[in-house]
Amino acid sequence: MILDDFLTVNSKGIYCAYGDFFIDAREAVRVSVVSHGHGDHITSGCFTVFCTAPTKSFMELRYNKGAARDFQVYDYGVPFTLGGVTVTFLSAGHILGSSLILMEFKGVRYLYTGDYKLQADPTCTPISLVKADVLITESTFANPIVKHPDPSVELDKLNSTTYPIMLGAYALGKAQRLTAMINQYCPEKKVLLHHAVLPFHRIYEQYGYAGWHYIPYGRKIIKEQPENIIYLVPPLTFNSYFRAKNLIKVFASGWKYLQNRNDMELFISDHVDWGDILKTIDVVDPREIWTLHGDGSFLVDHYRGSRYVKIL
């Protein structure tokens, strides 16, 4: 029997009372099971954190010794038990180390996605979907009008100019994916990295993602060799250069509003769009769908009368 209260949401995060743990805790708690290393899914100061090895590395980079008192690191596909709940990490395809979290309790399988994507990505393990009774899915772009374009076609836009490009991107995940894809699809471009992005590239390299071509940012390089340069910067830096001249401003995101007032649109997202959410549901074939992290109302309407959809 599916338990309607298997997961509840409160100010501290997503709580599983049957295993006495939080998922992606928002505050310091005794036990947090972490899906991935992005700042909106992690917090410092938890007593015990269960996660993959790359996620541990990202948390330690962000929080140093305050990341957690104790880390319990598990590879994909290796189950562990919390209370009476058996938990297994599966690849989410979102960023390096990102995990779907499969929870099994009294014969019922609950699959929490965290952030995930189905698009190919050379910088992380492809998603690994399994059957489950309940799918707890993010709904960031759960809207029928949203369709993420082919990222290779989007990247080709950068080849349309030799002017220096300031490319805004999240320092973890997006910046590494862009570096790899620029190397592949824009081979004439030279990638310069902001100092806040570099440490995340170094961690990726520690986990075997080596061979990318990039160099740390240097003002001299841009002044003396401005042609075909792409300067990858985090959002705060990108926003601080709103009056910058003699360069092309671009921000890589699936959000339309983040493309406003830029010189070029670049729709590259690390989340599922509407079509990929429906594909995920077809593969997982859940009896119930629970939604998080966005607006689940379109899924409620889409499956009305055929599947039960609940907004957590």
Automatic annotation (TrEMBL):
PANTHER family: BLL1145 PROTEIN (PTHR11203:SF49), CLEAVAGE AND POLYADENYLATION SPECIFICITY FACTOR FAMILY MEMBER (PTHR11203). This is Exonuclease. InterPro entries: MBL, RibonucZ/Hydroxyglut_hydro. Keywords: Exonuclease, Hydrolase, Nuclease. SUPFAM superfamilies: Metallo-hydrolase/oxidoreductase. GO terms for molecular function: exonuclease activity.
